[in-house]
Amino acid sequence: MTGQANLCAFPDVDILAPALRTYIAQCEQAGLLRHDVFKIAVSGGSLPNTLARALLAPATGPADELHFDKWEIFFADERAVPLDHADSNYGLLKKEFLDKIPADQGQPIVHPIDVQHLDDVQELADQYEQVLRITLSLPVVTHSVRVAFVATGGGKKDIMKAIFERGDDLPCALVNSATGERCTWFVDNPAVEGVSYPRKGFL
């Protein structure tokens, strides 16, 4: 591990989104060069909406073109609920992002949980581990080629202070420590108001 996590703060989500798109485009290009596929694991919450704002915008040039037909999407966390349930991260991603991808841009391969095992959470987890061939535990996440977090809104201030100033053995703080410069945070200014941690520009 070298250096420390990159904290990139933006005035608002409208400015954050294009930077996030550029970052993901760079990750995609690296993945395609190495494996001819781009594998990404996503979570829920407000992330699908932010991804949609970033990734559904028109490309500004070759550097941020995206090839969704080369994507495989996994879930970093998921709830044991039907895929059309209001609490399903898959359902949220589908509604906010997947269903809005233009037909001519292709569709990613998406790996949701197997709803046949909703009544047995351990079996559900075991089955998803087979889909991944790994489980998204802390050691696996920290060995990712790149890790990105997106946090927006003033409601995140307290948790961001805990992560960046105290650590508190929080999972995100542990990821920061283990991945160093491979970890990048995309945040808006309200989310890190009063947080004492050096900001970095994103190019």
From TrEMBL:
Residues of the Glucosamine/galactosamine-6-phosphate isomerase domain: 12-133
Annotated protein name in UniProt: Glucosamine/galactosamine-6-phosphate isomerase domain-containing protein
A Pfam family: Glucosamine_iso
Organism of origin: Parascedosporium putredinis
GO biological process: carbohydrate metabolic process
SUPFAM superfamilies listed in its UniProt record: NagB/RpiA/CoA transferase-like
